[in-house]
From TrEMBL:
Protein's organism: Thiomicrorhabdus lithotrophica
EC nos: 2.3.1.193
HAMAP family (UniProt xref): tRNA_acetyltr_TmcA
Protein name in the entry: tRNA(Met) cytidine acetyltransferase TmcA
Reaction equations catalysed: cytidine(34) in elongator tRNA(Met) + acetyl-CoA + ATP + H2O = N(4)-acetylcytidine(34) in elongator tRNA(Met) + ADP + phosphate + CoA + H(+)
The protein's role, per its UniProt record: Catalyzes the formation of N(4)-acetylcytidine (ac(4)C) at the wobble position of tRNA(Met), by using acetyl-CoA as an acetyl donor and ATP (or GTP).
One Gene Ontology MF term: acyltransferase activity
Keyword ATP-binding included in the entry's annotation: yes
PROSITE patterns per record: GNAT (PS51186)
Predominant localisation class: cytoplasm
């Protein structure tokens, strides 16, 4: 007990935090934390949700710990507390331990604080069933089926880290913990040197050239949100009038508004002649008078900003990675002075989306954008033991393999590649391979989070295949694919846990006995950036197909956020589109698409029936449920459809419309029918032309709406655009169904 109290005193002096593991029984653990925290300190007891009598309830604090004043927080609700600072957190691993929980809660702990894990003995812990594994266990798998490789990985990682590990009945003192000799940290007045650079960059956005947005990135605890608040006041005092801060939730901007108020109060105290009069200080709004002018900092929700673009002098977007890329792009197009701030490490689930997707949009729309990175921590000193221990265990600092680009081949053939099915034990015993693989997955997918590492190591029904290449006598992982087993379910049983594709397709299009078929769902596919566009992804899918065929799997499948770049990849590998989600993914802003490829005759028959149902329903979805599905994706999907017959006579309808012998309203149904059968032709048009045709002919939007969306002069302008397209298409289609200029006939899978 006294050891941990002394440890906290030392940590306060050093402005550090630490990870403490207490391995023993509950009574002993309770004694160790007795008197560790004062009544005024906030300490979270973080617990999973377990099923009790078929009613899910948060696990309560065990009786032996109830005399301590801890606040019980359900692990899945931790994201709602982001931005809050706490004195410490306690997790009883017997109640469940998730990778994301470790990442999130560690970032909330103040200097001098402890993250305490309560575990049984090391040997018992390494074999303990983790309740958090239940989220990725498909029916009928249960906790006893899950592996414990993630726990073993944590134990191995933390034996190499600077942590405090106390075991009951083992003579071990907290003095084994290595203290810092660097006492340079001080509670200096903000801004820090890093923040000063950020303030200057924000000032340039506010007063410099338009359309040069700034991107501020930082790991947690570096003061990026506080920099926004300080910069807002700085810009207002220098002449700006109205600054807007936005984020996915108001509470994410709490730090920015807090530091804005602190700066105003400090300035008032230091220099009374400034005459700063605070008018309003409430959540989401700060208003003050300066030189007899009203100055405001205001929170406005991002969706409201899209519908009603603000006339604010500058727009500050906090935690930008939490917003979908299309929404960020809309903000970018509607506002000319923007700052996007985001956490770089993506343990909240969507951090990488900003890196992977939005920066491409910046390059397209505002190529003069700037960037600023904050390295210096402000809530704790550098070389913080807790931060290092968590980063090391969760591979938050993992990178994919360094490749000598001078030795990269212009073309890659299967003979250049070595394909290997990786065993989880191999990853557990080869940290370099695990880091390389996980780093590759992180850079390739916007939603990869530490929980994916836990699933990778613990799921009993996951298959990992890697593509390697030899360089300088060393094998490098340059591609990887992760598959999970689904299907083989009894048709009559209640809704099963997991089995995403079989249950989704059965619910929407398939017969009940479709659930009997087995599938490997491809969860992730990634290729090293230096080797992309060399067919490696195609080779990986071919190898997966071989393995699945040997395992007597009925079909391959996948579900992913659809983009114009991804769809051709899957369709060229003869995967059929079978379902489009009507709700857009919160992280990507894209509609999820389900694709599948049959491997057996039975699966081919079942999937063909599903495809037929989807083909019939898809045009109606465009009218009712998919108004924002991009036109390019619409035509890519329709181009895969199979029609029993093609009515070439429909071309005459287009001619009649083009030469003004028939009005649009009298033949719109026939033009719609022609469009469904001629996607290959329409895809040859420009992107803007595809969108005009899709919006008017398929989505049946009004003439006024189409004209407004595409900057055309009313109905006349839209009709001129439609007839101009017809002039390119129809003459060549009268005698030859294929249009050599605009595209190839539909491929039949």
């Amino acid at each position: 007990m006294s050891d941990l109290i002394q440890l906290r005193k030392t940590l306060f002096t050093e402005h550090h935090r630490a990870l403490v593991i207490l391995s023993g029984d509950s009574d002993w653990q309770s004694q160790q934390i007795d008197s560790l925290y004062k009544n005024h300190e906030t300490v979270f007891w973080v617990a999973s949700t377990l099923s009790k009598n078929e009613v899910k309830e948060p696990v309560c604090i065990p009786d032996v710990f109830t005399r301590h004043d801890f606040e019980c927080i359900e692990s899945k609700r931790l994201p709602y507390y982001l931005g809050q600072e706490i004195s410490g957190a306690i997790i009883d691993v017997k109640q469940g331990l998730s990778a994301d929980t470790l990442g999130i809660v560690s970032g909330m702990i103040q200097s001098g604080g402890l993250l305490i894990l309560l575990t049984p003995s090391i040997n018992e812990w390494s074999e303990l069933h983790n309740p958090e594994n239940s989220r990725f266990l498909n029916t009928p798998l249960n906790l006893s089926d899950a592996k414990n490789a993630f726990t073993k990985h944590l134990i191995l990682s933390w034996k190499e880290s600077n942590i405090v590990w106390l075991e009951q009945d083992v003579s071990q003192a907290a003095s084994n913990f290595t203290h810092s000799n660097d006492n340079t940290f001080s509670h200096q007045t903000l801004p820090t040197e890093d923040q000063t650079h950020a303030l200057k960059a924000i000032h340039s956005v506010a007063f410099g050239h338009r359309k040069r947005p700034l991107i501020i990135t930082a790991d947690r605890g570096r003061g990026k949100s506080s920099a926004l608040g300080i910069a807002a006041v700085d810009c207002l005092l220098d002449g700006k009038q109205h600054i807007v801060i936005t984020a996915s939730r108001l509470d994410q901007t709490k730090a920015a508004f807090k530091h804005a108020i602190e700066v105003l109060k400090t300035l008032n105290t230091q220099d009374k002649s400034l005459q700063i009069e605070l008018i309003n200080n409430k959540p989401g709004l700060v208003a003050f008078k300066y030189n007899n002018e009203l100055k405001t900092i205001e929170f406005i929700a991002p969706d409201h900003l899209i519908l009603n673009p603000t006339a604010a002098d500058i727009l500050l977007v906090d935690e930008a990675a939490h917003l979908p890329t299309p929404l960020l792009t809309d903000l970018l197009m509607r506002h000319h002075r923007l700052v996007f701030s985001t956490t770089q490490q993506g343990y909240e689930g969507s951090g990488r989306g900003f890196e992977l997707r939005f920066k491409k949009q910046l390059d397209i729309h505002t190529p003069d954008w700037k960037t600023c990175h904050l390295k210096q921590p402000i809530r704790w000193a550098k070389n913080d033991p807790l931060e290092h221990a968590i980063n090391h265990a969760l591979l938050l600092d993992a990178n994919f393999a360094d490749i000598d680009e001078s030795e990269i081949f212009d073309t890659i053939t299967p003979l250049d590649l070595s394909f290997k099915k990786v065993d989880i034990n191999e990853l557990l015993n080869n940290r370099a391979m695990l880091e390389s693989l996980f780093g590759l997955l992180v850079q390739a997918h916007y939603q990869t989070s530490p929980n994916d590492l836990q699933q990778l190591l613990n799921a009993p029904n996951i298959h990992v295949l890697v593509a390697c290449i030899e360089q300088a006598g060393k094998m490098h992982i340059i591609g990887a694919v992760l598959c999970i087993e689904e299907g083989k379910l009894n048709p009559g049983q209640a809704r099963a846990h997991g089995h995403l594709v079989p249950q989704l397709l059965t619910k929407n299009y398939a017969q009940d006995d479709f659930m009997l078929l087995s599938t490997w769902r491809i969860m992730r596919i990634a290729v090293h950036p230096a080797y992309q566009r060399n067919g490696i992804g195609q080779h990986l899918l071919q190898e997966v197909e071989k393995l699945a065929t040997l395992a007597s799997v009925d079909y391959l499948s996948s579900s992913f956020g659809a983009t114009e770049e991804l769809l051709p990849f899957w369709f060229e590998q003869h995967f059929w589109p079978l379902h489009v989600g009507v709700k857009r993914d919160k992280a990507s802003g894209s509609h999820n698409l389900v694709v599948a490829k049959p491997l057996t005759a039975m699966a081919r028959q079942a999937l063909a029936l599903i495809q037929s149902h989807f083909q019939e329903q898809f045009p109606h979805l465009l009218l009712e449920s998919l108004p924002y599905l991009p036109a390019t994706q619409v035509w890519q999907i329709i181009n895969t459809f199979r029609f029993k017959k093609r009515n070439i006579g429909l071309d005459k309808v287009l001619i009649n419309y083009q030469n003004n012998s028939r009005p649009y309203e009298s033949i719109s149904g026939k033009i719609w029918e022609w469009s469904l059968q001629s996607a290959h032709t329409i895809r040859g048009a420009s992107i803007s032309e595809q969108a005009i045709w899709c919006d008017k002919v398929l989505k049946k939007e009004s003439w006024q709406t189409v004209a407004h969306q595409h900057h055309l002069s009313g109905r006349k302008g839209v009709e001129e655009a439609l007839k101009k397209m017809i002039a390119h298409w129809v003459p060549k289609k009268i005698t030859n169904h294929q249009n050599p200029k605009f595209g190839k006939p539909t491929k039949h899978f």
